[in-house]
Design a protein that fits this description.
mainly beta; Immunoglobulin-like; Maltoporin, Chain A; globular
Length: 920
């Protein structure tokens, strides 16, 4: 759906209205759709008692300006549809009022109907109406609901949606399924992921101020991409009202264990506040680009000179952590460009926040049924998180039947992290101190040209086409790690794989896409839809690793702090020498091309039953090509190549015994494909003694068969009750596993089969249905109950291509929560402009990492989150918003064999913001 601009069309003003031009006036805008949720062009909207009127454009949008302040009635008419009168439309001076209208054909409603404006207005009502009319199972959250929550980004907002849970504060799990079983789009265009290790888009990169709605399709339709089983998440950026508007907000937040408390940090670059490194962390110019740093290629003096060229900052320092700051601004207007009615939207957001966590990190090994700690660390981590986004959109109404849209979005996030861990390490047989400095910058951008044509010469068909260019970039320049062992003489530096290291990585993703959809009406509720899509994604992954060696030659210097130890006097041929550890498997190029075509039909089976179904053909070629950055003539590293052609059918049936009730049934087959990182043989250790994570080139794609059933009722505008059931069968599911070798290795493997089934319950309603005195209270809540089982094979394929025997067993699917609970209670007091909301979220414990052999699974434990939000109208277009997040103070905790192995204490957060706006 195009997030088009509201355009003034065919407005005629009589002398009476012109004479009243000096009086206070406002404007009116909205959208007209049919009972199936499709936009209706050329609908006449007239204001009773005047000559003011407008006609809708091809997206069903209209606008009327210059309306006198007060109450008005609208008459909405279109040939073949029942006329509707909307009463009690309140127009306020200097503002725009939104009224969205649904019309039904005369064969359904034979007489004109009258409704009040409250029954037609509001984004929450519009989203529910869109859900009611959809041909498949969807859930959505809109800007109205987001604004009343403490949610600062899309990930937090989606936590409120039925069956959705958030992992690591940024990744969305739909119906408890891992991120590999979901897909994300921005305004219908595929998004590239800035994450090297996973498919998911970190949705915390999309500030809530930019969001119009986030819609999650839980059943498959052939006109959508076929690579999801949990849900397809479509992020819709904001559209804007039918007049000039300006919005700005400023705010701050206080973390109870972070703000104005002692935390960790280090000296970075001058552009860190923008989320970019200014070159401070770049690979020094002295480092050769065409040769590996080894003493066989360079002289010892040359290596020493290179070793002294790195930034001499290694240690986190204690510092007082500031409070957070955030702000946003947006501007929208409509004008004329080249004689075409034109809408413009510009917006931007900025956030600078800090987060201190108390950490616990443990690794358990089992030997002869005795539990021991391989690693038992605790410590502190402080991160500075910068996030900013900018969006621009320009829409042209080229003619009554053609609209063009050009939009672009760029979002940047950066995490600057300092970590200090201390504890026992069994490999070292000593207490170990480990520090890390790490800066990670992520960017996602998307640019698109879209067009929509209303083809009245082809039975009022609708043709849409789009071209998209997007990409993602991740930079992790100069991660620094140092490890010391505790001795009788004090802490002594140890020469290890992850000690005295400098690590650099860059990832570039690029997406080119095109799509075409043609919908040909075959009657009021029937249509044939055909189309195709093409996506070409490429990735370049670059890594270089360096470390200092020579511990046996530095004597007493090994007891120096890292900043002094790695200072120039100690970097010499007879002391510490730099060595390059870049590996043959560290770098790779990858590509994925998807070519798809589909055909589907929607038609009634009688007066109450509707069929929607068809099939999609997807041809996918996926390659991961590792390469040696400095080839030595050795045989090439194994590549991963997948070439699959899949027919993906989908059928949706909707029975509507009344206009306020739907019973839906759906069946489909979809796929889940391995990600580049999972196929690449690149390896990485998170901390000394931790898992060695390695990709597996032998992975294959997963086939998923889906069955869904939903009953939903819409008793009044803005209210709904729903019960859903679903079943999914996975063939060759991909999961992360851990197995013991010479060290603990984490990789990915295909299991034989898995099943998931569950129930979902949802309710949204005013409590006025219980008692009139409760009419100012609004409740929304949902509960998901989910069971899953995986049949583990008796063998595990190693990244080397070899197999090892493991104990076959049945267990829950990795990442699958057995239940999720969301509830929100909102109190409105219109007389004072006050809104008070309480929001609760909980998920059931789920497997984070699958154990094999004697290693038990690692579980992320259940936790509760309670947030409270107060909004207060201060007058003069000024509004206050105050929130308390994580009121219960619970923290992410992971257990293995009943023992806590990972935990981060996060505390509570108190936020205050003020917003100001003109226009509606």
């Amino acid at each position: 759906m195009l997030a088009g601009v509201v355009l003034l069309a065919s407005v005629r003003v009589d002398a009476q209205t012109a004479a009243a031009g000096d009086a206070a006036t406002g404007s009116l805008y909205g959208r007209v759709v049919d009972g199936a949720g499709q936009p209706l062009p050329s609908v006449e909207i007239s204001v009773e008692g005047s000559m003011m009127r407008a006609a809708t454009d091809l997206n069903g949008r209209y606008s009327i300006a210059g309306l006198p302040e007060g109450l008005h009635a609208l008459l909405v008419r279109s040939l073949g549809y029942t006329a509707k009168t909307v009463t009690n439309v309140e127009i306020r001076a200097g503002s725009a009022t939104q009224v969205d209208v649904t019309l039904y054909p005369t064969v359904v409603e034979l007489e004109g109907i009258t409704v009040t404006a409250e029954a037609e207005r509001g984004s929450a009502v519009a989203l529910i109406e869109e859900r009611r009319a959809a041909s498949f199972v969807v859930d959505a959250i809109g800007s109205e609901q987001i604004a009343r929550s403490p949610d600062s980004d899309a990930a937090a907002a989606l936590r409120r949606v039925t069956g959705l849970s958030i992992v690591d504060d940024r990744y969305v799990y739909v119906r408890g399924l891992g991120d590999r079983y979901s897909s994300a789009q921005l305004n219908g265009t595929p998004l590239a992921s800035p994450e090297p290790d996973r498919k998911a888009i970190p949705l915390d990169m999309f500030p809530s101020d930019l969001l119009e709605s986030v819609v999650t399709a839980k059943t498959y339709s052939p006109d959508k991409p076929g690579d999801y089983a949990g849900g397809l998440i479509d992020i819709q950026t904001k559209s804007f009202p039918g007049q000039r508007t300006f919005r700005m907000s400023l705010g701050t937040s206080y973390g109870t264990i972070t703000s104005l408390q002692s935390g960790l940090g280090y000296t970075g670059g001058n552009l860190d506040f923008l989320g970019f490194d200014d070159g401070t962390r770049a690979i020094p110019d002295a480092v050769p680009t065409d040769t590996k740093i080894l003493n066989t290629d360079l002289t010892n003096d040359e290596i020493a000179e290179i070793g002294r060229s790195f930034e001499p900052v290694w240690e986190p320092r204690s510092r007082t952590v500031p409070v957070d700051a955030k702000g946003s601004v947006s501007f929208a207007d409509q004008t004329s460009l080249f004689g075409m009615p034109t809408g413009v939207l510009l917006s931007g957001t900025y956030s600078n926040s800090y987060d201190t966590r108390e950490l616990l990190e443990r690794i358990i090994v089992l030997s002869d049924e005795v539990e021991n700690y391989e690693v038992d660390y605790s410590g502190t981590q402080t991160s500075r998180n910068v996030s900013w986004s900018t969006m621009a959109e320009v829409d042209f109404l080229a003619s009554r039947s053609t609209q063009l849209s050009v939009r672009g979005l760029y979002t940047r996030t950066a995490e600057d992290l300092a970590r200090d861990l201390f504890g026992y390490n069994a490999d070292r047989s000593a207490n170990t101190a480990s520090t890390r400095l790490m800066f990670t910058g992520r960017s996602v951008w998307s640019a698109g040209l879209e067009a929509e044509h209303f083809l009245d010469w082809l039975a009022d068909s609708r043709l849409e086409w789009r071209l998209g260019y997007g990409g993602a970039r991740t930079d992790e320049p100069d991660r620094r790690e140092v490890v010391y062992d505790e001795t009788d003489e004090g802490l002594a530096w140890r020469e290890l794989t992850n000690s005295g290291t400098r690590y650099y990585t860059e990832m570039r993703d690029r997406d080119l896409s095109a799509g075409l959809d043609l919908a040909i009406p075959l009657g009021y509720t029937s249509q044939l839809k055909v189309g195709g899509a093409w996506v070409d994604n490429t990735r370049d992954f670059f890594t270089r690793r360096f470390r200092y060696r020579g511990a046996s030659r530095i004597g007493a210097a090994q007891f120096l702090p890292a900043d002094s130890l790695f200072d120039d006097p100690n970097i010499a041929p007879d002391k510490l020498a730099l060595q390059e550890d870049t590996r043959r498997t560290d770098n790779y190029d990858a590509s994925k091309e998807v070519l798809a075509g589909y055909a589907m039909l929607e038609f009634p089976l009688g007066s109450q039953l509707k069929f929607s179904g068809g099939a999609r053909l997807e041809r996918v070629r996926q390659k991961v090509l590792p390469y040696d950055l400095f080839p030595l003539g050795l045989p090439p590293v194994d590549s991963a190549v997948l070439d699959n052609t899949d027919i993906l059918p989908g059928v949706n049936l909707t029975w509507s015994p009344t206009q306020a009730m739907n019973i839906r049934a759906a069946a489909s087959q979809t796929v889940a494909r391995p990600e580049y990182r999972e196929l690449a043989p690149f390896d990485f250790i998170d901390f000394v003694g931790g898992f060695l994570q390695v990709g597996n080139p032998s992975l294959t794609r997963t086939l998923i068969r889906n069955l869904d059933l939903r009953w939903e009722i819409f008793p009044s505008p803005g209210a709904l009750f729903a019960v859903s059931g679903f079943y999914k069968n996975f063939i060759d599911p991909i999961e992360a596993v851990v197995f013991p070798s010479s060290e603990l290795i984490a990789t990915w493997d295909n299991n034989r089969e898995a099943q998931v089934y569950g129930l979902e319950f949802e309710a949204r309603t005013s409590l006025g249905v219980l008692a009139r005195g409760l009419s100012n209270f609004y409740f929304s809540g949902n509960l998901s109950l989910i069971e899953s089982s995986v049949q583990m094979d008796s063998t595990l394929r190693l990244p080397s291509g070899e197999t090892i025997a493991v104990v076959p067993r049945e267990r829950a699917l990795q990442g699958q929560s057995p239940y999720t609970i969301n509830a929100a209670l909102t109190y409105f007091l219109p007389a004072t402009g006050t809104t008070l909301s309480g929001m609760y979220n909980r998920f059931g414990r789920r497997i984070s990492q699958v154990g094999t052999q004697q290693l038990p699974d690692i579980f992320e434990q259940s936790r509760n989150q309670l947030d409270v939000v107060l909004e207060q109208d201060l007058g003069r277009r000024l509004r206050l918003k105050a929130t308390v997040s994580n009121l219960l103070g619970e923290s992410p905790t992971y257990e293995q064999n009943g023992t806590i192995v990972r935990q981060s204490i996060v505390g509570r957060r108190i936020s205050v913001s003020f917003s100001f706006g003109t226009g509606s």
